[in-house]
Amino acid sequence: MNAQYRAEPETVRDREVDAEQRHLERVYRRLEEKIHEAEFLMDDASKRAQVGTPGALAERDAQVFRAGIHLNRLNSEFEDFLFGRIDLLEGKTGERGPDGAYTSVEPADGAVRHEGGEQRADIVETLHIGRLGVLDADYAPLVIDWRAPAAAPFYRSTPVAPGRVVRRRVIRSKGRRVLSVEDDLLRPELKARLGGEELAVVGDGALMAALGQARSHTMRDIVSSIQAEQDEVIRAPAASVTEVEGGPGTGKTAVALHRAAYLLYQDRRRYAGGILIVSPTPLLVSYTEGVLPSLGEEGQVAIRALGSLAEETAGAEATTYDAQSVARIKGSARMLKVLRKAARGALDLGLRTPVPERLRVVAFGSRVELDAEELAAVRQQVLGGTAPVNLMRPRARKLLLDALWEKSGARRRYEDPELAAEARQGFDEDIAGEDGFAAFLDAWWPELTPRQVLGAMTDEARLARWSRRVLRPGEVRTLARALAARLSVQGEGPLSVHDIALLDELRTLLGAPARPRKRELDPLDQLTGLEELTTAADRDGGGRRERRAQERTERTEYAHVIVDEAQDLTPMQWRMVGRRGRHATWTVVGDPAQSSWTDPDEAAAARDEALGKRPRRRFELTVNYRNPAELAVLADRVLALAMPGVAPPRAVRSTGIEPSFAVAGDDLGASVRESAARLLAEVEGTVGVVVAMRRRGEVREWLAGLGERVVALGSLEAKGLEYDAALVVSPAEIADESPAGLRVLYVALTRATQRLLVLSASPDLPDGDGVPDLLRE
Ligand SMILES: Nc1ncnc2c1ncn2[C@@H]1O[C@H](COP(=O)(O)OP(=O)(O)OP(=O)(O)O)[C@@H](O)[C@H]1O
User: Fold this and answer.
1) Most buried of the four, 77, 249, 612, 733, by CB within 10 Å?
2) 527 C-beta neighbours (distance < 10 Å), count
3) What's the distance, CA 246 to chain centroid?
């Protein structure tokens, strides 16, 4: 906007908005200068490339790399670039840090004067906070990166502990226009002056305004309104394990995502090893995956659903869910013993070709044979080792040759050990050269895939053998049937979420197939560890980017692992996730009251095993930013039943709108559709309809044609998501689905930001007002 044509500001609000507008314009001018600089660098670098000496090429790559970072970030972060400001008193030491800001957070002793019964002070420093730091031509900060230490007071200061902050301002802008400002006065008792004028204060409740906004199908970042208790978690040192607990809506997921961005900012080199965020469902992945790019970070962070975590290792992704009774068995730590036996036992099954019963070879002109019993003894001896089954093959080969040598009687013919060794070498070469021996080995010690072993477990009798004294007969039957319902004996077919952890475990037990892969070290990675850039070398050669993408998908260990909804990981899933962070630091966020896992003690033990002996630092989040108080009260009743004695988080908002209740007619589908339509008319944004898992299929049909604002969810899929309005269908059905059903219902009842409608069916025993038995006071 051109300043000449701007209307005269009239109110304090207009004047303050106008001042921020002018600052934003300065920032943009500076950003444009930086972009030109970056483009010039790119251009210059490509000219240097024509020189063509190796030194010039390396220099070009380094230059292009740096310029690329600039361009990429500047271009992508123009939207909503600047969002905060703090006005500060003089600091205690008055020293400026490397970014130009005063480092001290405490006011200097004489910063506040007492005059005529009043407290007076001058603002000596104003800092603007944004998504990226920008310095002016004299290296003075125009904008401070939200993750910089100097920005911390923007999030941390409170009226109780204001530090140097007098006024904290949230600036709402879109592109190049400042739309509004909202101030918090942190020292209301103080008469502060800025540039000779009294400090102005505009509006209130930036946080409340953010919370009241209509929801879309993607999560927004909270960078402009992170609260103090959240900020402490985001900036917690990354050493060892950071554990965060908090009720629904306390911002655990938001905090986890912002923490990933913060860690990268703090130590980009260290986290070049990648940050993994583990999410329970693909729905939650797609809901949250836009947040990191909005914070300027994506290349180093992988957000994965539990069901697709083994994609790069076991080549498998889950498409289905198990019934709770099956999930309990598949997720149990006891499965490890079963899988160990299965991985070994599957060798005997002739999964590819029939297992030969004897081995006949010709060595030194005479036949040597091992019979079934002798072969079994050799197998037994090989399996005495601890290596992964597929990797035991060389040892199997060696022990077979030993047995044949022994059987041939040749050993006894040589007394001189040197001659014996020579003869033995000839013997081995003779046998190993035979096609028959190689074919025998392939059939007798086949290279097994995880899917083949899982397929082998579809046979009940066989599974019973492998799980003797581990699973009960009823569990064996349930598991074998559940596997057989989806998988062929070769293991082909759709996998469930819980199968993925089993496959991943099997892959470890079997060992990776021996396929040598050449890995080139990328000099650019070593330079700064960034991956997301296109360089001139990429464009010239074309192949590097593809290779990088491939390497990224093949990454199986990370520098930092963030587990969201950690209360839901089964022991087998903890093992799967643990393997990806053996040398990592961790952030684990969750809420035991929302756990859908039926045996919390078993899961806690597996979690301890995954996290090892690393020291842990615990944080608790206590404020519910999602649910209005009117809805939270209802959910708290279920919490009291599910986890007696656990304190619910404090809801900060109130809308004055109570939850509503309805009773379904004979046609449940029609009632659900009608209720969903009612909610769609009441809110601007999204509506989530939560049903018991077994109704997942039919609810989609019931809601067909109602448009994209409405989403159908099985109770377990609702985890972590939120909607303007939620329709919870038959609380009793959800609660009765598993021993953890009440906690799952608690999740369902805490999804709404504005309205909640509970639709009862007959198992709910609703009273005259339609309130189901479970939710009555
Ligand atoms: N400081 C904040 N400023 C603005 N919005 C916030 C803030 N903290 C949390 N929120 C909002 O509150 C909602 C709940 O946050 P989030 O989903 O991270 O909570 P959660 O603790 O993970 O919940 P659940 O346990 O139900 O998964 C989100 O819409 C989030 O954007």
Assistant:
1) 249
2) 14
3) 17
Q: Is 474 annotated as a binding residue?
A: no
Q: Which atom of ligand 1 is nearest to the CA of 625?
A: 12
Under 8 Å between Cβ of 259 and 234: yes
Q: Report CA(493)–ligand 1 centroid distance (Å).
A: 37
In the numeric block, the tokens 């790399």 are attached to 65
Alpha-carbon distance 64 to 66, whole Å? 5
* Per-residue pLDDT, 76: 55
- Percent of all residues in the chain with a pLDDT value above 90, rounded to a whole number: 48
Largest CA distance in the chain: 116
**How far is residue 154 from each of residues 126, 148, 193, 235, 327, measured CA to CA in Å?**
11, 11, 19, 13, 45
253 CA distance to ligand 1 middle (Å): 7
Statement: residue 172 has pLDDT above 60? yes
Q: Point out the least confidently predicted range of 461-465, 633-637, 713-717.
A: 713-717
Q: Exposed, middle or buried by CB within 10 Å (0-12, 13-18, 19+), for 108?
A: middle
Question: Among 626, 638, 717, 721, which residue has the most ligand 1 atoms within 8 Å of its CB, making it the best to mutate?
Answer: 626
C-alpha closest to that of 144 among 157, 153, 156, 131: 131
E-strand stretches of 495-559: 495-496
251 annotated among ligand-binding-site residues: yes
Do 717 and 281 form a contact (C-beta atoms < 8 A)? yes
Quote the ligand 1 centre to 209 CA distance (angstroms). Answer: 14
Strands 141-145 and 134-135: antiparallel
pTM: 0.81
Question: Binding residue per annotation — 714?
Answer: no
Q: Which residues' Cβ are closer than 6 Å to ligand 1?
A: 207, 210-211, 220, 222, 225-227, 230, 246, 248-254, 591, 594, 625-626, 720, 722, 750
ipTM value for the complex: 0.99
Closest by CA position to 536, among listed 80, 106, 4, 49: 49
Determine if residue 248 is labeled as part of a ligand binding site.
yes
Give the separation between CA 7 and CA 454, rounded to whole angstroms. 72
Q: What is the pLDDT of residue 551?
A: 44
Q: Residue holding tokens 């059905």?
A: 733
Q: What is the pLDDT of residues 705-731, one digit of tens each?
A: 999 999 999 999 999 999 999 999 999
The C-alpha torsion from 301 through 303 and 304 to 306, rounded to 10°, is 110
Query: Cα(706)–Cα(269) distance, rounded to whole angstroms?
Result: 48
